[in-house]
């Protein structure tokens, strides 16, 4: 890539960013857009806007940037929970790493690279003085003593990153503990999920559970809730809710519009008839629903699982950690998630079916990750110029314009790839949900991991090791050749990834600020429907999409740090943008839905360790290639030390993210006051884990105002 | 190999076996050999022999075989513990497997192989009708439909083995639980070991432990014993004991012998002087010892570890399974071993030193296993004929005799290999003891695993994949080629391994019966010393040597089952011999020292699963080689199903071997009567885990009669 090309790309993307930011600064102040740009404030009833028009509403103002940049961690913790804090810490961690890396890279490595003359010596035919390659390590003379600068830089960065990683792990785990210690009593702290309850003939699951826990945990056992098979009920409720919505819609609409509609199609009955018809249908459905509900709870579509609550957190923890039964496949215990975090559809599946679907999901994920690019390349091949002209002949004239055809051939394949990539987080989330996690937050966490490895494989390795998917995979069957192959392939893609940081990093993050997709959706909805404020809910933050993206830029930065330090300033800009934007979005847009209390951090740690190891592997290859075998051998202790460091961290910190300690539980238990509040909490605890579909139907997800059964609403 | 050669080998080894058995049947009845052939009975005071001479003592009698063969599992369980039962079950398990395999192999596969004519068609130059190869799968025509017989046999055997494995795992784990339920209260059931106790300045380890457990386990905590750094003391005690022995020896010896001795050297003093000198030295040593003992316990060479006892088994289990502290590297808990099973020297090492030695041991084991044959081959090369003639010129005439030189060249390398191999179990046990296990039984278990993989690598793979060690290892870097390489190499070694079963299996096991080495040692001892009955102790069974050997024959049988079914009858004979011999040895020779309560079984299970997978890999290769690709592909589900079966067993049974369940603990706790016996037990529990070197010195390992302090003995 040429410097001029890079500058063009930077210019275009900088322009786009400025455009997005300006538009955002304007649009966010329009009350009509509050549901896009401040849904959280709106749902909390805190949106500040008044309907009155003022001139400043049309002028972009940068106040939000200052507010976002200055928002403190305590504020974030209290408003969005520990997960949001962890996410922001990924960004500040990256900022720290790449500040040091940037200083070393730009002021030491870049001059060293630039002053080398390897590339001029070799004198490639196509080398101009404009080439970006003169800023990379390729330009340093083979066997040159100057390569020791790179060698030292690798050591310094590794030590610095490990030091930061250790501190961050320590900080996050202490936060996790203090978060637990400062939390109010919550149902999931007192509850475990028991699965594979053995049932002897003649007794119910409920009886078995009660007998077992009264026998073996007599002093701590409080109550239990058996899980029911409710898939059928779930479908019925969905149908009812849909019908109810149509009915409400029909009632609210002005009579004219309806008559017009029914007149237009001619086949429909008048408004009165339609409403009557719907009401009858709804009544029938409700009758069914009630029957089914009582059926489920009485006749016993019991799943062999139950949420068992205890009188103390420590009691629950003991039951969780001890193997309960002589047969380890029975009475399998698991930490219960928060009540609203339970992923209910899962419980309907039998054990065998869940086990098989786990295997299937595993295979599907591996296949999707390894072979993703094959269909994408195929579709990109279909969408070339001549195919478009065949399919859409009316475009022929337009496509014959040189500029248009260039844009189409240049951008269309990229657009297709981006569209496919956008589908990955939802797909991975879906796969995770099939896999057998009992809570939504676990699904998200698992999807986060899957998306991360998918991204690393399909963006990093697919670009670096160009060739067929099988040729790529084959590299792992010859572990000895990995450094050599990486050393050749990785530096060659330096300019591609610099451009990637600018386009995908800068612009995509600004799109996240601008919320292009929700904006379009909102506009379309406004055009076609009128009642916009029913069922309005702030979205939850898509950790499974955002964390892998940030981590991937970290990987890029670490592996290209000594190869092509030119990438670092661009990355720094990216992380600054990301900090401001995500901080702002946490304040205005996303509301926390579930809390994992920092369980995302181990994923971050592993990813950074992997980046370091990858950097070391590339360094070994590079120094061999550059005929500095001594440096190549002296790098070897580094990955080993990094692995030992990682092993230590796994031992020191990881258990804290799996479970709290006896010390913590007992401390917390002793803090609980012995008053009416606590008694009330324990009363509530007994029913906290009832399946929502077995409760009286609510037609709105808002729990407050519209929480009355339907019939009363129909009858009034 | 030719049939005649095999018959010769069988003949020689059969003769040796008969000789050993006859000799054993005679010698065991001589009272002089009781310490070799019935040390267990002797040490228990149950040896039946009288000093009077009877003629029948000189005649061999087979009564012991009947007795050994008929001894029931209950008897074995009560006399030698669950570990012995598990060991015998390995043999009965193998007998069952190879009975079915033998029937299929000899009556179906052998005729099929024999009736093939592939080898005659190819007509090797050196093929005679006498060759053993016509009994192997190599003789079946390429692409022949008859290979489906082998295919079916593989499926049948795999299913049968998995069925048996499941039943055995189930049986052993139920035995383990019932063994626990029927056991008397034992200190290790109530005790855990706590390591990495954090100590704040000004307090001792003991105070820290007490404060922590009184705070967080107030209802169940009973007492604790802090571990001290006692290496110095251990050396002192050893010195004292040695000196004491010499003194006793000196006193007992007739005066004549001593004067002769001291006269002979001229430098020694008379008997009286010598005894005085020794007594003085001993008194000094004892003084030192007492000072050191009080030093250790007072001034505090405390290790940051303690044995903590609880009032109930369940209380101990809860403390064991819960993470105790917010910092997972502190208050690390571990199940305590039986008090006499604790491996005390270990505790003197610091945490870092133990961690490093773990790494070192790991590397040492891998190197030893992978590169063992290199020095062996080198030594074997040194010990050839011409070298011997150079070193020992007086042998020249003898070595020039053709027969002698043949024996030397044929047997000497083999002998050297055997000598080296004999050193492996002790070496592995030593390495395990350095590794950081806290009990002797853990050391043995770990050594058992190491020896098993060592045997499989250095006998199986080294023979099959002949070539340099590095060439062998390289096979694992090309996983795709494993089946093809095995398919070529494994059948070629069939006759070698048949001979191996006969020589190493039959004769070595008979040597175990005959106890050649202890017999020789005993004879030598009798020749040079006179007092033979002091410090007499029955040896404990060398599980780390015996289990890998039996498992290795199982591996041979399973992998050669369909390749060369001729091996199966020989294996069956081996397992019958082993059953009779080991059963007899458990009755007469070995006394149980530690009890792991069946923890060896998971090793057995894993080894058999590995054998099955290896067989499948070879089968895939063979069917490809024999041009029956369909069979080759249809084998593929088999390893996958085997792995799934293994995964299920790991989930279903393995946890039982790690820890008992809450159910079991609570049941057992409720059974304890609330009487004086129990109170006495709890009193003893408080001191059960004191380091033996801190107790008053005992000069004999017999705890009964000679349990008085030395000075009293010196003074009387």
UniProtKB/TrEMBL annotation, chains A, B:
Occurrences of domain CSC1/OSCA1-like N-terminal transmembrane (ranges): 5-168
Gene Ontology CC: one annotated term: membrane
Location(s) in or outside the cell: Membrane
Alphabetical list of Pfam families matching this protein: PHM7_cyt, RSN1_7TM, RSN1_TM
Bilayer topology annotation: Multi-pass membrane protein
Domain named CSC1/OSCA1-like cytosolic: residues: 189-345
Major site of localization recorded for this protein: membrane
Keywords: Calcium, Coiled coil, Ion channel, Ion transport, Membrane, Transmembrane, Transmembrane helix, Transport
Transmembrane intervals: 6-24, 97-114, 147-166, 359-378, 398-421, 451-476, 549-582, 603-624, 630-649
UniProt entry tagged with the keyword Protein biosynthesis: no
Top-level taxon in the UniProt lineage: Eukaryota
Coiled-coil segments: 268-302
GO terms classed as biological process: monoatomic ion transmembrane transport
Domain called CSC1/OSCA1-like 7TM region: residue spans: 358-623
Similarity comment: family membership: Belongs to the CSC1 (TC 1.A.17) family.
Protein name: CSC1-like protein HYP1
Lineage: Eukaryota, Viridiplantae, Streptophyta, Embryophyta, Tracheophyta
